[in-house]
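Translate sequence into structure tokens.
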Amino acid sequence: MRIKRNLAFQVLTAILITAGVTSCSNKNNNVSTATGWKINDKNGGFQYNTKYVQKTPNGMVPIEGGTFTMGQIQQDIMGDWNNAPKQMYVQSFYMDETETTNIMYNEYLYWLRTVFPQNNKLYQEIYRSALPDTLVWRNPTGFNESLITSYLRHPAYAQYPVVGVSWIQANDYAKWRTDRVNELKLEEAGYLKPDAKINEAYGDAHFSTDAYLLSPSSVYGGNSDIVYRGVNNRAQEDSRNIYATQNLGLFTTQFRLPTEAEWEYAAIGLIGNREYNNYKGKGRFPWDNPDKKRKGRPQVLNTNYANYKQSRGDYGGIAGWGTDNGDITTPVKSYPPNDFGLYDMAGNVAEWVADLYYPVLDDLGADFNYYRGSVYYQTKLAPDGTVQIVTEQNAEFTEQSNNRRSIKNLPGEVAQLAIDPKSLPSNPYSHEQTKPIVEQTQNPANKKPSQLYDEKSRVIKGGSWKDRIYWLDPATRRFYPQDMSADNIGFRLAMTKVGEKTNKRRTKN
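Result follows.
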């Protein structure tokens, strides 16, 4: 009996010791499992953020990735069949809870006008290239002149979705937003002089994320009184952390337009229809049961749950009994969100997504993070081998089909070169081989084909205030030239979630 008790005691002791060692090793993230050396030692050595957890960016909601049926599963009354059903998997990401609003875009315009003063002809061109086309409201048989002069700037429309923005302009805004968020993060961490972003940014002397990561000494025109070397310290020879690096986890993932697969997955909002590892069904619109009262969600004072055109000449019902409380666009958050917490994924404005338009989406494409239209860039180097920073002298513009110009990179940013697709490794789904096949119609006069879409046609998703209910189905898809804009097309941004699929820990239930 005593032998058995001693044996049981020894086994229990061994288990407790093992558990203690395991617990200690799990908690001690600052010791390398490869070398046993200390990480983040105060005396120097390897520095790394061992406790990094990506936080939901301001104004966004987390979208947990998963598998879903992408494409048209309802009857296609238009007869397009340009989005056949297919099983697709999307990684976790973040998405703006609302469409980009006028006040958000006006902040971008203010920054451009302030950092690039308008007494310089080049700076005038930079500012003009970002301005939305307010003339999209003009109609030869309608009177909308007040919208041309007031919709973008007037405070009454501050929370309305911005329109008149091209696909190219939306991408430029996303890049600007990435830089401003990272600039604030580095300032708060002590790597940038406080308030320099407001008081000392001028021309090419401002903050760019790519420039900081590739050539930090060139940021803010190389002013070491603004760009610090080491946390909360001015430039010193003995600084342990010369500049902030990605190891520290301070830099946000890039803001960008969502892919078509991401947008459709987020718009469907299937999370509310999940039962264990299956979906109970897919509704046609981004809401499941609009009559069901849900705690914490706004009460709707109209008879519709999206802003769309009811019928010819009916954009908002009769006076005193509005069907959707809007004749044009409506303020964001005017209707309940879907189960992901996203507003206006149906109606209000259609939205740009990143993809090139391709008429047939079949099973030959990728079934993981599907995206069509990748263009890759490489950093342009100066003759001495250093990273080339764009200046007033070497800034380049691209001519657009609407007689406007867009700047390739702002002064102060890293100069980039597009990689020739022919130089990429052979791939059956390469950009060159997935270029859209142009639909053609014969012109009897000269027998030359006219193009309906080409390699500059981008996908737009979702119905708008001037669309019929058919376009509210998340599976429907259309295209529009990337350098053109309209009074019913806006956008929202997305961001890839790094690390774990979800930060939530699941139980058996």
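Note: The first helix runs from residue 2 to 27.
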